[in-house]
Amino acid sequence: MDKKILDVAIIGGGPGGLTAGLYGSRALMNIKLFEQLGVGGEAARTDVIENYPGFEQPVNGMELMMKFNAQAERFGLEATYEEVLSLDLQDDIKKIETTEGVHEAKSVIIATGTHHRTLDVPGEKEYAGQGVSYCATCDGAFFRNQVVAVIGGGDSSVKEAIYLTRFASKVYIIHRRKGFRAEKITMDMARKNEKIEFIVDTVVEEISGTQQAGVTHVNLLNKLTKEKSKLDVNGVFIFVGMLPNTSEIIKEKDAKLILDEAGYLKTDINMKTAIDGVYAIGDVRAHSKRQVAVAVGDAVTALMDAEQYIEQKFHS
pLDDT (tens digit, 9 = 90+) per residue, 67-118? Predict the structure, then answer.
C-alpha cells in the first residue's frame, strides 16, 4: 500500500489528540496530527489545573499542554497546521480535505473538542472583543480594577470568576437558576471571595455600551419576579455551555451515522464510531466528562484499538 497513506490521521491538537499522537508515534505508526491554530485546545486556555495526576502543585494549562506536545514530538509526532475542511469517512481509506490539499489515512481519530455556546442576546456580537469575552485567561488582564460579569452556573464559569478576581475590582456571577453545577470546592472558594457577588434566577436580556467605551452595562431580568434591572459593568464573560466542533467538517452521509442530536460523536467503549476505522475522543465525544484525564484515557483506548484494526484490515 502507498506509504503516503497515513496509518492514523488525528484531527485536533488538544490533550486527547496529543496523547494519541504520542502513543502512535511511539509505536512507529505513520501518523499525523492536524491542528488549525495551536496545540493545547481548551486546556491550554485554562489558568490552573490542579486535578491532573502527577502534579502535586497546580499547573498552568498552557504549561501542561506544552509538556504534552514536547513529549509527543520527542517520539517524532508530526503536527501540521492546516484547517480541516471536510472528512470523507465511508471508504476503507479515509480522506481528509484541508486548506493545503487532500490527505488519506487508514483510520481517523477525531479530537476536535468544543467551542463556547453564545447567549444570542442583543449586543453580544457587537461588543465581542470590546468587553464581551469567552476566555478569562485570555482577556482578564484587560479589566484591571474594573467591574465584570460572568454569565453561567457550571464549574468552568465559577472557576473563571475566581480567576478574574486577580484583576477586577468586582465580579458578578449571573446565573439563570438558584442552584449551581460547579464542584463544591469551587463554590466554597467563590463564596469566600469578597470580590464575588452572586445574582441568581436572572438572565441577561441585552449587553449595552458605546463604540468608544465598549461594554458599559447589561440589562437583566429576574425570572421569578419578572423585575428588570440595569447592572453597570465593563466586561462580560460568557460561559453557558459548549458545542461540539463537528458540524462543519463531517459530511451529511457520515453525520447520520455517527452524530447524536446535539452534534456530538457517538462511540462504544473502545471510542469507535459506527464507521469502521473512525474514532472520537475527548470533549467532542458524546457523554464525555470533559476532563484532561478523560481525554488522555480516551486517546490511549482509541489509538490501541486503531492499531489493532489496521493490522487486521490491511495486513492480515
Answer: 999 999 999 999 999 999 999 999 999 999 999 999 999 999 999 999 999 9
The residues, any chain, with a CB within 8 Å of residue 74's CB and separated by 6 or more, are none
Residue 155's identity, in one-letter code, is D
E strand or H helix that includes residue 252: helix 252-258
For residue 316, name the pLDDT band (cuts at 50, 70, 90): confident
Q: Write down all domains in the chain, each with its CATH number in brackets.
A: 6-115+242-314 (3.50.50.60), 118-238 (3.50.50.60)
Sign of CA dihedral 45, 46, 49, 51: negative
Q: Give the burial string for 160-172 (b: 16+ CB within 10 Å, else e).
A: bbbbbbebbebbb
pTM: 0.88
138 classed as catalytic:
yes
Burial class of residue 156 (count of CB atoms within 10 Å of its CB; 0-12, 13-18, 19+): buried
Q: Of 2, 47, 91, 138, which residue is the catalytic one?
A: 138
> Is residue 91 annotated as a catalytic residue, yes or no?
no
Q: Is the dihedral of CA 292, 18, 116, 97 positive or negative?
A: negative
Active site residue 135: yes
Distance (Å, whole) CA 91 – CA 315? 17
